[in-house]
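Figure 6 in text form: structure in, sequence out.
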């Protein structure tokens, strides 16, 4: 594939770049009125994600409208539980809900390792359309949730502040926990391989709920599975973003991922020392984009100066919030482009 702009791939591989590449977690959907216009034609998020032509359209919107250096496929991490036999609903303004959850061995026996061709071909179809429509303008990022985060939703049945049901399962039934985590891992490996086969140029694994485990639990129930995924997929650069997992940054850096995503609680200079040779991605506080233009300029420049040009992909420290003004997002992107080309 010949790209017009492959900055993000080169930065991920640790190669020299003329300027810092930039994209934003949750750039597809959430903030753009153009996204809502497409979504409002359908019953909601799930139908949109399952309609490849429209999923492709909203994947490309931020490339056209915001000027980001990568597209990320429009889908959700929760398609994996669904493909394993636990369907989800997306409740307006409240988020995901699972009518059935995993509580016992017999619930587990009703699940299967995802058959991607059968259950997730809408995602691989959307990837093929995006690749064709982008025609090399920028790379396409595929993604999945990390096994612990997916496990948390499958046990809890939805979002939660504490995920205490999911954490209780780790303490009360480690055996069932490991079995389910392994099934999720096998499903995720199949799924990410299929995304690469369909054309994804790089991959990101989101461990959104890393921050609620203890270091001991993270080492036992999260790292081994993230490691398996990293080792199973060697074809494209990979990023691991484990939110609030400051306590295991060194362990994450030992895995086979090229890039480590940082949330905004981490200091760029200290993080560099802790992860050695890896590329870093992040980490502006999404709330910084509520500030005025001057303060966005200042905070973005400070971030770029702290990370330095090499081995760095500019991004936020977590996903965009729905009420962030798209003009301020564009300003952030422009500051990255201008300041880092000096
Ligand atoms: C934890 C998690 C989820 N989904 C995701 C994560 C990991 C990243 C993170 O920590 O934010 C990942 C995700 N979800 C979505 C993407 C698409 C690509 C992108 O723009 O980055 C990605 C990468 C679309 C989506 N996923 C969802 C929407 C909103 C649905 C709508 O349009 O109503 C979108 C565009 C719904 C969703 N999906 C999820 C929740 C909690 C919610 C409800 C709240 C919210 O809006 O985020 C689970």
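Output sequence:
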């Amino acid at each position: 594939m010949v790209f017009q702009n492959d900055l993000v791939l080169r930065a991920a591989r640790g190669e020299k770049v003329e300027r810092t590449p930039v994209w934003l977690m949750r750039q597809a959907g959430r903030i753009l009125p153009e996204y809502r216009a497409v979504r409002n034609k359908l019953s909601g998020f799930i139908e949109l994600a399952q309609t490849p032509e429209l999923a492709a359209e909203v994947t490309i919107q931020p490339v056209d409208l915001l000027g980001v250096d990568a597209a990320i496929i429009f889908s959700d991490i929760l398609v994996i539980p669904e493909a394993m036999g636990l369907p989800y609903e997306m409740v307006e303004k409240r988020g995901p809900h699972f009518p059935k959850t995993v509580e016992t061995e017999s619930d587990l026996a009703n699940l299967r390792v995802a058959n991607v061709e059968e259950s997730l071909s809408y995602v691989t179809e959307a990837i093929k359309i995006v690749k064709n429509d982008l025609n090399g303008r920028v790379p396409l990022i595929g993604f999945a949730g990390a096994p612990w985060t997916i496990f948390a939703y499958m046990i809890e049945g939805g979002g939660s502040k504490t995920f205490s049901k999911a954490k209780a399962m780790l303490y009360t039934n480690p055996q069932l926990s490991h079995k389910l985590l392994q099934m999720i891992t096998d499903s995720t490996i199949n799924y990410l391989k299929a995304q690469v086969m369909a054309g994804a140029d790089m991959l990101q694994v989101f461990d959104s709920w890393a921050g609620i485990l203890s270091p001991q639990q993270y080492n036992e129930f999260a790292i081994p599975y993230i490691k398996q995924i990293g080792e199973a997929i060697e074809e494209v650069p990979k990023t691991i973003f484990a939110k609030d997992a400051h306590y295991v940054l060194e362990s994450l850096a030992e895995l086979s991922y090229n890039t480590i995503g940082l949330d905004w609680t981490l200091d760029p200079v200290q993080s560099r020392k802790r992860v050695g040779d890896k590329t870093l991605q992040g980490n502006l506080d999404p709330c910084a984009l509520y500030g005025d233009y001057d303060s966005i300029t200042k905070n973005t420049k400070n971030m770029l100066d702290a990370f330095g040009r090499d081995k760095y992909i500019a991004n936020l420290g977590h996903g965009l919030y729905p009420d962030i003004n798209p003009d301020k997002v564009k300003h952030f992107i422009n500051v990255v482009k201008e300041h880092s080309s000096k």
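Caption detail: Residues 25-30, 39, 45, 72, 74-78, 90, 95-96, 143, 159, 206, 208, 319 surround coproporphyrinogen III (CB under 6 Å).
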